[in-house]
Amino acid sequence: MTAVPEAFAFLNRITGLAQLRQPAFEGEDSIVPTPFRVAGAASAALGLTAAAANEIWRLRGGAAQDISIDLKAAAASLLSFALLRLNGEPVPRPAESKPTVAFHKTADGRWIHLHGGFPYQERRTLDLLNAQNTVEGVSESVAKWNAMALEESLAFMGLCGAVARTEEEWRNSPQGLVLGDTPPIVLRRVGDAPPLRLGEAVSPLEGIKILDLTRVLAGPSAGRTLASHGADVLSVRAEKLPTVDLFDLDTGQGKRSTFLDLTKPADAEALRVLARDAHVFVDSYRPGALRELGVTPAALAHASPGIIYLAISCYGHKGPWAPRRGWEQLAQSATGLALDQGSFMAARAGNRRESVPQLIPAAACDYISGYLAAAGVAAALLRRMREGGSWMVEVSLCTTAMWLQSLGKIPASQVVEGWKPGQGLDLYFKSCETGKGRLDFLGPVVRMSKTPPAWRRPPPQPGADEARWLAA
């Protein structure tokens, strides 16, 4: 069993920072109906981001301050998209009922989680299966496949799906063996640059410019977290790329948004101009995708010495699965979380027959990976202030899942029966006006006595901003 302070100390250690002042962690870890310590993991990652941001603020002339995190609020943040209310009504989640986004049983008695979430993925998944777009049609087609053969076929076609493995199967798989003991945050120096000098500021990350080339939860959550500490975060994507409005409303807080199509020379040059003045570049495309467009950590470090390149992936940045596209559900399935969650729920229900894989009832891998990524960036900024250099930060949904497994499980008798994420958290809820109406949302859950995190901009209309940095 690992307490939250120990998880915080571990993250502090792997980022190479001198011991930071530990936040006060309030409450118990058993909040979500799962034996995995998701509330504690989220709190530890958010706590390290805040502690590193506070140290940056201290070096900028700020005074010492108190930091605290309520584990109940941190747990609720793992479902913050579900807590949104637009003009008083819940915001629909498009893929929730799609038959191509679900577990299905295969011919060899195993389970595979498909994820045809975006329209083109849905169409091509149905084509591969030769199935009608119904639960029955997809299930009947999947039932004719061997699980591993279907998984490989999906990957070959650039589609998404993962077989529900045990933790042991994952760790002994080719990809699991490559990841091995990879920590949840990988931070390494990739170039030389003079130390970063920052003047006095109202917020810890005021004046820090972040290029956010991400979509859908994990990557955008990292930028949103850094924006809460004052960073100028510019979200960049091609207008033609699909996204999810619900997730954009959730993770767009505090950001600006511009459209750039990097396959067009003029837009690619606009990105290079932005990157020359950026402190942080965030990439959550599959590893190597931006390399095809000439964007690499080495190239950016050459053009902008001192830049921090944050890379977020599903399956890790090395190994045979690195190029695969992935989602939260697939990381939970591949690493063994889903089978363990299903076994736990079956035992709780008194079902001694075959258990069915289930997902942890929160986007734990996505949001926690986002928080770990933000912590890695804050740590890299702090190290750049002290040591100089250009830095690389790597985070993946699967290494996050493996870290969750390493934290030990909550005893079954202590796991809560039910969960109402927003209940009792009125203090954290905020409202703002957006282009679509009034938005009620869960605000930042970290409390800081002198620089309280806040999102100073509502979620932007996609592409509404110019491709430039704000004036100092």
Briefly characterize the structure:
With 472 residues, the protein is of the alpha/beta class. The chain is built from 16 helices and 17 strands.
What would your notes on this structure say?
The chain is of the alpha/beta class. It has a domain at about 5-90 and about 180-315 and about 365-450: 3-Layer(aba) Sandwich (Rossmann fold). It is about 35% helix and about 15% strand. The protein is built from 16 helices and 17 strands. It has helices spanning about 5-15, 40-60, 70-75, 120-130, 135-140, 145-155, 165-170, 175-180, 220-230, 245-250, 265-275, 295-305, 330-335, 335-350, 365-385, 395-405; strands at about 25, 65-70, 85, 90, 100-105, 110-115, 160-165, 185-190, 210-215, 230-235, 255-260, 280-285, 310-315, 390-395, 430-435, 435-440, 445-450. The chain has a seven-stranded mixed beta sheet with strand order 8-14-13-12-9-10-11. A four-stranded antiparallel beta sheet has the order 4-3-16-15, with no helix packed on it. Strands 1-2-17 form a three-stranded mixed beta sheet. A hairpin with a 2-residue loop joins strand 3 (about 85) and strand 4 (about 90). Helix 2 packs parallel to helix 15. The longest helix is centred in the C-terminal third of the chain and has 24 residues, at about 365-385. The chain is globular. It starts with a helix and ends in a 24-residue tail after the last strand.
List the helices and strands and how they pair.
Elements: H1 4-14, E1 24-26, H2 38-59, E2 67-70, H3 71-76, E3 85-86, E4 89-90, E5 101-105, E6 111-115, H4 119-129, H5 135-142, H6 147-156, E7 161-163, H7 167-171, H8 174-179, E8 186-191, E9 209-213, H9 218-228, E10 232-237, H10 245-251, E11 255-259, H11 265-276, E12 280-283, H12 297-303, E13 308-313, H13 328-335, H14 337-348, H15 364-387, E14 390-396, H16 397-406, E15 429-434, E16 437-442, E17 446-448
Parallel strand pairs: 1-2, 9-10, 9-12, 10-11, 12-13, 13-14
Antiparallel strand pairs: 2-17, 3-4, 3-16, 5-6, 6-7, 8-14, 15-16
